[in-house]
Amino acid sequence: MKTDLSVVRKYGNALFELSIDKNLLEVIYKDLNTFLDLLANDRDVKVFTFSFKVTPEEKASVFKQAFPDFHELTHNFLATVFANKRQIELEGIIREFQRLYKIDKNDLDVKITVPVGLDDSTAKSITSSLSDLTKQNVILDVNTDSSILGGMKLRIGNVVYDGSVSGRLSKLREKLIIEN
Prior knowledge:
It contains 8 helices and 4 strands, in the order ααααααβαβββα. Helices cover 62% and strands 13% of the residues. It folds into 2 domains: 5-103, Peroxidase, domain 1 (Orthogonal Bundle); 107-179, no CATH class. A 4-stranded mixed sheet has the order 2-1-3-4. The model has no long low-confidence stretch (mean pLDDT 92). By secondary structure, it is an alpha+beta fold. α1 packs across α6.
């Protein structure tokens, strides 16, 4: 089934606004991150969550028992999603909540790919430079890929800045092919 983006936005925004109104933004964000990690890493939980064979009430009850540390608002949110048979949109709803949270906190996710790992001082320097440039709190996700040979690739949102040696070689190769 296809995700309904209007449902994702409506539920994500409603939960976000309610979390702010109840002064629970950090708590709900933490709960949802935990739940999303579990969905991504535990096949049984994912199958159970998305199953239409298990009643919404059973799902809500099982999750309430399995996650006693989750706030009541998180449990009520999950119960509402299940009762309205919107579990297909659940991951999207949580990602929408996360997106709104990051906007509220002025956070910017940046993925950097380098040929070898970065030491702490280099990572801090890059983070600081990007924070100064963007005027946002940069959250750096460092990945290594030896195939880029040197330099780095940055992904900020949907934009990729390719300053890698392999990227430059690829552009040079394209230029040479076009000229010949």
